[in-house]
Amino acid sequence: MTGQEVRLQPGERVDDLLTQQLKIIQSDEVFSFSLDAVLLARFCSVPTRGAIVDLCSGNGVIPLLLTTRTSAKITGVEIQPRLADMAQRNVSLNGLEDRVRIELADLKSYHETAGYGAFDLVTVNPPYLPAASGDIKGNPYIAAARHELFATLSDVAGACAKLVKSGGKVAMVHRPSRLAEIISELRAVKLEPKRIRFVHPRLDQEANIVLVEAMKDGKPELRLLPPIVVHEKDGAYTEELKDIFYGRRSELQA
Q1: For position 173, what pLDDT does the model report?
Q2: Residues 6+ apart with CB under 8 A from 44
Q3: Across the chain, how many H-helices and E-strands are there?
Q4: What is this structure's pTM?
């Protein structure tokens, strides 16, 4: 898949995105995608058609990855103008303008534009830390990626509930330390957790990532899926991670 040449801002570079025929503009000063985003894009239950929205979209990595799994229309929502511009250039770079659009918007009010229940799937990789916790970095982009400066976990859950249709799915990647809060916030807006999967750095280490998928208006029935282990004892990626990270498989095994 080839797109058009795009301009680069100072400090930006173009990287390969896994082994798919995708490229991605990144910047260590502003935004570089992480394993969390890749796992979320491979974990979520993707409709073959319909509409998907990715909240807190950053440079658009999740929408780009989702194009390898579905022909559904995909929207990325990002509140920071520089990141939204980077995401739009990533769409153009990969020639995906007919499948992906980027919206500069606040997720808390995006339903007013998109409409209630407009999407079959909502994905979100939100900031993991409350605004009042820890040391907020001086770089505003890094600070917003780590801390809930623009939206709390409650705001994120509420936005997801407004945007997803009844019976549709919401998939989130977060930190295990906030899992109880995540489940509480999701249930408060009629998003019933249906699948949870923990990610461990190594087999003998506790999980540092959790993947959660909920259904709008779903009945209580939760599946706890097998854990994902990222590294072998020698530090190399496990075979499952290599399959996912390097694009040999488009979705995680259930």
Answers
A1: 97
A2: 66, 121, 123, 169, 171, 213
A3: 8, 11
A4: 0.91
Q: List beta partners, residue 103.
A: 77
Residue 198's H or E segment, with its range, is: strand 191-200
In a domain, 254, yes or no: no
Q: Which residues contact 217 (CB under 8 A, 6 or more apart)?
A: 166, 167, 190, 192
Encoded tokens for 125: 């990789």
**3 in a structural domain:** no
182-198 burial, b if ≥16 CB within 10 A, otherwise e?
bbebbeebebbbbbbbb
* C-alpha distance from residue 178 to each of 64, 129, 162, 194, 212 (Å): 27, 9, 22, 17, 12
Q: Residue 24, CB half-sphere, CA atoms under 13 Å: how many?
A: 22
Q: Where in the sequence is the domain holding 166, given as residue range(s)?
A: 13-245
Q: Tens of pLDDT along 175-188?
A: 999 999 999 999 99
Instruction: Provide the number of structural domains found in the chain.
Output: 1
β-pair type (73-78, 228-229): unpaired
124-146, pLDDT tens digit by residue? 999 876 766 666 566 665 655 56
Flag whether 231 is in a domain.
yes
Domain harbouring 183, CATH code: 3.40.50.150
